[in-house]
């Protein structure tokens, strides 16, 4: 049960430390902080000095030169840089209003279902160094289920697929715990990288993160409408000419990359269902599968999963905030 994760001390706030964005919520589910999971350092190769984090660091991305460097503290959903995680969490703590010196603020932090003990210890250390006290780590699919107000405490199976920027978590929840979990260490950013690599290799064209995001939105609209024959535009650098340029390409050129991503997610869901006990599988067939996370609305994702596993799939309302809402449910709750 979720309550068993906690000691007698109550949870003061929730932290959704995502690969793309970091959110801090209070007991009412109100957002205290919501900014990109990015940090900027000076002299990163020697003794790095913290410069900026969040939205300000994002504004520097791909627009700075040495000795400045913008990095994300997470890779494929888990901690990859301790210094960046510590500074981002400290920045978020102060900006969210938790400023008192020596204040013992205890957070609940979401983690991927398959996070290793080493990854969990590193995250706890980073949060403690950032000024938080006794962080509690909770699996993100369980938080997403709570955020959807599913009756997770009942002896009934519910499947949640949390599609984040760095990882895709598939979990079957029953009696307040995770009965089956499978994690694909790839999320929305994997699709961004695939598109970036395709443009570089096939067209000798280089693009930045914002240009890829805009292109992804165009492709999503075209693929949802089944209009592969329309053209999409992307701005970047023509490496052959060494000049800025706008490239126009048919949406159909990217369909293979897109389908590879959604089929990998569907295969992970299928693998999780193959390991699900029959009684829980029957419950899931009745209640369907819920998609949450920032990448839940990726074009063709829900329809492909439904086609592969033969179970109804529903995209949750406001899917990118399901984990944050789940964290909000835990704030103020003692053991």
Give a description of the structure.
The protein has 335 residues and is an alpha+beta fold. It has two domains: 2-143 and 323-330, Nucleotidyltransferase, domain 5; 151-315, Nucleotidyltransferase, domain 5 (2-Layer Sandwich). The protein is 36% helix and 26% strand. It has helices at 54-60, 82-95, 117-129, 140-147, 188-203, 209-224, 255-274, 278-287, 301-309, 322-330, and strands at 13-17, 21-25, 31-36, 39-42, 49-53, 68-71, 74-75, 78-79, 107-111, 136-139, 158-163, 168-174, 177-184, 205-206, 231-238, 243-250, 289-292, 313-315. A five-stranded mixed beta sheet has the order 3-2-1-9-10, sandwiched between helices. It has a five-stranded mixed beta sheet with strand order 13-12-11-17-18, with helices on both faces. α2 crosses α3 (117-129), α4 crosses α10 and α7 packs across α9 (301-309). The protein is flat, with a radius of gyration of 21 Å. The model is unreliable at 3-7 (pLDDT under 50).
């Amino acid at each position: 049960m979720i309550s068993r994760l906690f000691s007698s001390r109550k949870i003061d706030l929730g932290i959704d430390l995502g690969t793309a964005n970091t959110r801090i919520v209070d007991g009412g589910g109100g957002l205290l902080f919501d900014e990109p999971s990015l940090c900027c350092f000076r002299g990163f190769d020697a003794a790095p000095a913290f410069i900026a984090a969040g939205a300000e660091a994002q504004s520097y991305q791909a627009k700075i030169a040495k000795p400045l460097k913008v990095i994300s503290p997470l890779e494929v959903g888990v901690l990859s840089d301790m210094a960046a995680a510590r500074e981002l969490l400290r920045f978020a703590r102060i900006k969210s209003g938790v400023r008192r010196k020596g204040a013992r603020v205890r957070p609940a932090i979401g983690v991927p279902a398959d996070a290793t003990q080493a990854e969990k210890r590193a995250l706890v250390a980073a949060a403690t160094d950032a000024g938080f006290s006794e962080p509690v780590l909770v699996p993100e699919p369980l938080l997403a289920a709570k955020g959807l107000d599913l009756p997770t405490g009942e002896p009934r199976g519910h499947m949640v697929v949390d599609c984040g920027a760095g990882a895709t978590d598939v979990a079957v929840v029953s009696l307040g715990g995770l009965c089956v979990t499978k994690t694909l260490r790839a999320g929305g950013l994997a699709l961004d990288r695939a598109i970036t690599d395709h443009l570089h290799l096939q067209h000798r064209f280089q693009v930045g993160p914002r240009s890829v995001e805009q292109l992804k939105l165009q492709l999503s609209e075209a693929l949802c409408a089944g209009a592969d024959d329309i053209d999409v535009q992307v701005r970047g650098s023509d490496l052959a000419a060494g000049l800025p340029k706008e490239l126009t390409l048919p949406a159909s050129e990217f369909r293979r990359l897109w389908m590879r991503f959604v089929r990998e997610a569907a295969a992970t869901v299928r693998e999780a269902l193959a390991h699900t006990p029959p009684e829980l599988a029957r419950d899931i067939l009745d209640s369907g599968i819920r998609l949450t996370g920032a990448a839940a609305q990726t074009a063709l994702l829900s329809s492909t999963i439904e086609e592969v596993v033969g179970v109804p799939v529903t995209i949750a309302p406001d899917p990118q905030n399901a984990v944050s809402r789940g964290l909000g449910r835990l704030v103020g709750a003692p053991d």
